[in-house]
Amino acid sequence: MKVTTRKAALGGLAMFGAAVLLAGCGSAPEDSGSTDGGEASDFLPCMVSDAGGFDDKSFNQLGFEGLTKAADELGVEPVTVQSDSETDYAPNLTNLVDQGCNLITTVGFALAAAAGESAEANPDIEYVSIDDTVDLDFDGTTDFENIKPIVFDTAQAAFLAGYAAAAYSQTGVVGTFGGMNFPTVSIFMDGFKQGVDYHNSEMGTNVQVLGWDGTDGLFTGGFEANDTARNTAQGLIDQNVDVLLPVGGPIYQSAAAAIRDSGREIAMIGVDADFTQTDPSVADLMLTSILKGIDVGTYEAVLAAGNGEFDNTPFVGTLENEGVGIAPFHDFESKVPADLQGQLDDLKAAIIAGDVEVASYLAE
C-alpha cells in the first residue's frame, strides 16, 4: 500500500482489525509435525522479502524460517527473492509469477500494494501477506480471495515490555524510535508507551517516554543499519534513556553500537524475534524482546497450501492465542525487580480478560 497519510492507513486497518477480532481469531498456529506431503510434489512456494532482507534477525528472517521448514516437510524447494528497495517489490513478484510459483508470501506492510496488484492479476496463485491485510480500498476486508493475511496485535506484547522497561529504569527515561511510520512499526511504540504509562499509574512512578508521543515520533526513514539510525539512537542516549526500543529490523544494530560507545548501562528491547537467540552478539544488552509468531504462522499457511488446503481466513496474533508475547529476561533476570515476572503474568491475564485495555489499530 502506498500510504499517502498515516491516518488513511490506520483507518482502513482499524476497520479490518475490528471486523476480524469481533469474528474471533481462533487458536494460534501450532507446529503440527510432519506430513506425508500429499500433493506437494508439484507445489512451488515462494517468498519476497522487504528491504530489510532475509538476514535481518527479525521478521524477514522469521518468515524465511517458516517457509523453509514447511518446504522441507513438503519435500519441495522454495524460491526466495530479496528486495533491496521498494522499487524491487513489483518486479520481484512478477519474477516469481513467471517462475510458476503456486504460493507467494510477501513479508511486510510495505509490500501490500504490490501484493494486491499481483494477486488481482493472478487469481490462480495463492498469496500470504505477512503484516498487512491488503485492504487497499479500506472497506474492512482483504481485497482479493486468494490472499491470506497474517497480522499481529503487537501492542499487547509491547505493553508488557513497556511495563517491564518502566520497572527496570533507573534514570526514569526510556526511549524508542522506528524505521518508517507504518502502523506495523508504530504499534510497537504505541503499546510500549501505554505500558510505561500504566506502570506509572499503578506503581506511582514517573518514567518518561521519548521518541513516541502517542501519535508521532522518531523515525529514520528506512530499515537499514546506518549512520542515521545510529545518530537517532545517540540522540535518545544523550537524553539519559536507560532502555531503548528500536523498531525496524536491522536498525537495532546501529542502536547497539551507539549503546556500546556510550559506556553506559543501557538495556535494549528487541522486536519480532528473541534477539538473544537470533543475534547472540547483542544478548548482553537485551532486557527482553517483543515477539511475533511470524515463523509459525508462515509455516502453517505454507504447509496448508502445499497440501491443497489453502485458507484465506485472516490470522490475528494476540496474547490470548499466543501469536504475540515477550521473551524471557535471560541475562537481565537478576537485574529486574524480583516480583516483576509475577506482575507481568498478572498483567497478561488482565489484558486477555479485557480488564486492562490496550489500544491499537487492530483492536478498535
Automatic annotation (TrEMBL):
Localization per Swiss-Prot or TrEMBL = Cell membrane
Q: Where is the ABC transporter substrate-binding protein PnrA-like domain?
A: 47-327
Keywords, ordered alphabetically? Cell membrane, Lipoprotein, Membrane, Signal
Task: From the Swiss-Prot or TrEMBL record, give the protein name.
Answer: Nucleoside-binding protein
Q: Which family does it belong to?
A: Belongs to the BMP lipoprotein family.
Q: Does the keyword Transport apply?
A: no
Show the PROSITE patterns listed in the entry: PROKAR_LIPOPROTEIN
**Annotated membrane topology:** Lipid-anchor
The domain of life for this entry's organism is Bacteria
GO CC aspect terms: plasma membrane
Signal peptide residues are 1-23
* A Pfam family assignment: Bmp
Record flagged with keyword Membrane: yes
